[in-house]
Amino acid sequence: MAVQCLLSRLESFLQENGKDIYRMKGILSDKDGSEKLFSINYSGSGLSIEELVIKKGELINKLIFIIPKLSNVELLIHTEFKDSLIDSVETDFPAK
Q1: Number of domains into which the chain is organized
Q2: Given Cys at both, which of 8, 13, 46, 66 links 22, Cβ 3.0 to 4.6 Å?
Q3: pTM assigned to the model
Q4: Which domain holds residue 26?
């Protein structure tokens, strides 16, 4: 299951770089067509992953990171997760 490998990479990445990330939200589904969707939320209190059931063929793969402006972690995020499994990786900065 490719998404399990990605979730493992994401957990490791957040353990190493979590102090530089305010929040992260995402939705991941297996591109093998299984009916599993994972809703992911990360904040200072930790990571939560919820497994949901979706309609067959509905594929959503998107991660959004809320990070400090001018953070080195932005390049790390795009390098680590902009691959064939992820359709969209976004970074956003909190309004002042």
Answers
A1: 1
A2: 66
A3: 0.71
A4: 2-92
